[in-house]
Design goal:
Chain lengths: 279, 279, 279, 279
């Protein structure tokens, strides 16, 4: 229902990926070839860990209900900050109203979370899911999306101790509750989570037909592939991006993330994969 | 925390009371002498039963997060519709975010509801109140205010059958739940409710120190008091308004609503009073 | 760059055409098959002469910078007013910022004006055009679009006395000024103008390749064509609409307006055509 | 009509002055004791030269039409950037519409400009002033305020070569044009201008009764005055602020800027004063 990207690496201006790339996130907001919806004009969000912030710092958020393609503030901001880890998200609303509290990414302490997809039939079992959220966390739910409830469910079920286990537990909880309400295929999700140091990206749907997700190939390999590409010089050797669809048409630049997989990017560079939601 | 007015009578342009009165609702949004806050700039709402609509019709809503004093659309709309029963509300937010879903009035079928005041300590017991809402109604809560939860609680507890009893039951439920969380004086409320035919206005606080509420004197009496007042000619004989503070300085025009009282305006004209929340 | 529709006839809820039609204006805002841009998400406007207003009355305006497809206020309003003559416009901005003052329709006294298209190279000769506006009218230009300048130019050059001559004079003025700045094909325009009684619709571009414009076939003919069409019963015998692209796929319902033509709809019903901009 | 502050010194989080000070700019937006209007809720702007940017860099802008007191994005941004020179402005609109293009500060290349006050009778002579703007600069006027026209007039008349002379020439031009239109006291202005290195602050009105303007005392002096003040430790020895009204009640912290004076803050620290508009 949406498009997102998550960057980890040397401090970078978000505009590089959000505005300047061939198929930048803002370009995707108007026209996303691989999206279930071609227009993602129902608000956006940018979340970033400031350059130089200490470990455990709270990320900054910028949420807007304007279409990303015409938001001047987004341009100004994305060109004038630098961040070693940031999330960008453009929304195509599927029900819940367009308001800043429904814009991704969501934040809890030093954690950020964003989601593309939906919980099918959410209205029928939202109450049960909300009841499953830790009562201490409950008052912190500020919006009305399925995505934010999913985040607070994962926080309740261990995200902070083990993000992969926490997200898996939340997805299983959704599937169990939805089954009780006769919803066959409740989960459709690509998810990004970060604590400021590590980035976890998930691709999963109950039906096994998940929205696309890609990650970039490592920069040294790209330099070998495209030794003359001026555009690549802005990226440091640890620069990596996970994104709903490729940011350019250069063959070999993006690799599809497998179904039912968590992709883990730690600060050292490289990718680690882990199967999730095995029966 | 807010200012509101509710009109019942012959079809009237809302601008007459919302924009043109000496102390119009929009004037009060910038400066409300009797308000707990002098500025009510955190959005507003207008709800109206269209002129000529059949009994049981759903009212129309206009919600905006702009300050009322500079919203051009509010001016255009208020001058170009006419309604026999409308609500206007300007908000001074006390926590919940400024977004259209948090703007009053709230609506359920042909019912409208708005509130000035707050439920003290709401975050501490919000979850318990939300759990007390009928699960069928729960998915219809779109915003995050205490006021909207209070409305859905009243709907759950009989508002549609007996508005006075329904609101009383909701207020008692809040007081019971708040007491369990050691909140001494939870309710601060002036409330307006309508089904499109009758208007109910409530003034109540646990502590017995409720925000001000006034209603206008009947128009025939006002004509006798001020036989030369040009401005009064726009009003029909059944025109009545209930409002957080008087719309003008003319002595004898507005009467204070008593504490712990429901004031009832039916379509025939006149006022009926009923004590509420007696021990 | 935009899509618009103009209705004249028996009082009608704008929602009938703006929201409920098969290819309603709001549907076109997300996807306009015949548009130069497929997305028209940069604000919208609704202008209407209130039902029952006297001749010469000022129309009401509702302007918003939100995409039309997710604006709740537009829905509420369009379903709860009725008007014998209204304009709707969804914008795809081509430079000038997205702000309410740049939303169509524009208004001067009882006149409304809206435009789809652009003045090519406008920034190069805007100053000269603005200088050609009557200094008395100049302070009333509130936005920064080429369209609004075109309106004030037409007002300066006789629109109020003879709308066809006034618009022609304005278009010729643009062409003359643009020629001085070496712009070959400056005008691209479909335009609607009304004084509250008559509706004038123009289709013209310097190059003779104007954006599409259609008008509906008269209702009695449509009833003969589609005797069983439930949907047509909402329309009175004088109902007519001019629109950037057809509102439905029913063969025979919409007729293309010719190039270099003004189409005139007076209150009596029917269409009148006049060639414009003949050499 | 507005309130503003301008900071120059060691890189600082804008939130220190805009949000956290006793009478911060956001506090002044709701209640400015020395203001001509007590509420400045008609949008705001933040303009900043990014920390580490090279000389001549273009500043970043954040403009919003929401009241500053409830804008979450302003909070996030002001707490998560640092800047050696930034402007903050809260607006109380006196006519021109509330839209981002009317929010201060305005920008041209590496220059920023903001204004508190008004040009009296502006609508009567706006056209003449706009005609006096360099035709090359004319297309860059994006909004509709007197302030922006004043900025472009100053740019036309030499601001970039000599800011004091350029602003003086612009003010004299306004006074001459206004006199031709029989406006007695046209200028009411406190103005801030910067090129990213130096900050110029002006206080002038034709009548000699200009809105208040203050600058802070130098930090070493403040440390001597208040050796135990924890709050002062966040400021470096070159930290200086010019502001519409004092940010706190500490005696000796702020000094009033004299009438008809330009105050100049260069990068080295300290203040320089120059009389302006002498007959």
């Amino acid at each position: 229902m949406c498009r997102w990207l998550a960057y980890s690496g040397e401090p970078l201006r978000p505009s590089t990926l959000i505005l300047d790339a061939q198929h930048s996130l803002v370009a995707q907001s108007l026209n996303s070839p691989l999206g279930a919806e071609t227009v993602n004009g129902d608000g956006f969000g940018l979340g970033w860990y400031p350059d130089g912030a200490v470990a455990g710092s709270v990320p900054a958020l910028f949420h807007s209900i304007e279409p990303a393609w015409h938001d001047e503030n987004l341009r100004e901001l994305a060109e004038n900050i630098a961040s070693p880890l940031f999330f960008g998200h453009v929304r195509a609303a599927a029900g819940p109203p367009i308001q800043q509290t429904n814009c991704h990414p969501f934040r809890y302490d030093n954690w950020m979370f964003m989601h593309n997809g939906f919980l099918s039939g959410f209205e029928r079992y939202k109450r049960d899911l909300v009841l499953a959220v830790d009562p201490e966390l409950y008052p912190l739910i500020h919006g009305t999306t399925d995505s934010e409830v999913l985040f607070y469910l994962a926080l309740t079920l261990g995200l902070r101790d083990d993000p992969v286990a926490g997200v898996e537990a939340a997805l299983r909880k959704v599937e169990a509750v939805a089954r009780d309400h006769d919803v066959a295929f409740p989960v459709q999700a690509t998810i990004a989570v970060s604590d400021g140091a590590t980035l976890w990206a998930f691709r999963y749907s109950t039906q096994g037909m998940t929205r696309t997700l890609f990650h970039s190939v490592d920069i040294p390999t790209l330099h070998q592939l495209y030794p003359d590409a001026e555009r690549l010089r802005v990226f440091g050797p640890r620069a990596r991006v996970v994104v709903s669809e490729p940011l350019n048409d250069l063959p070999g630049t993006f690799v599809e993330v497998q179904e039912s997989t968590a992709t883990i990017l730690d600060a050292a560079g490289g990718y680690d994969y882990r199967p999730i939601m095995a029966a």
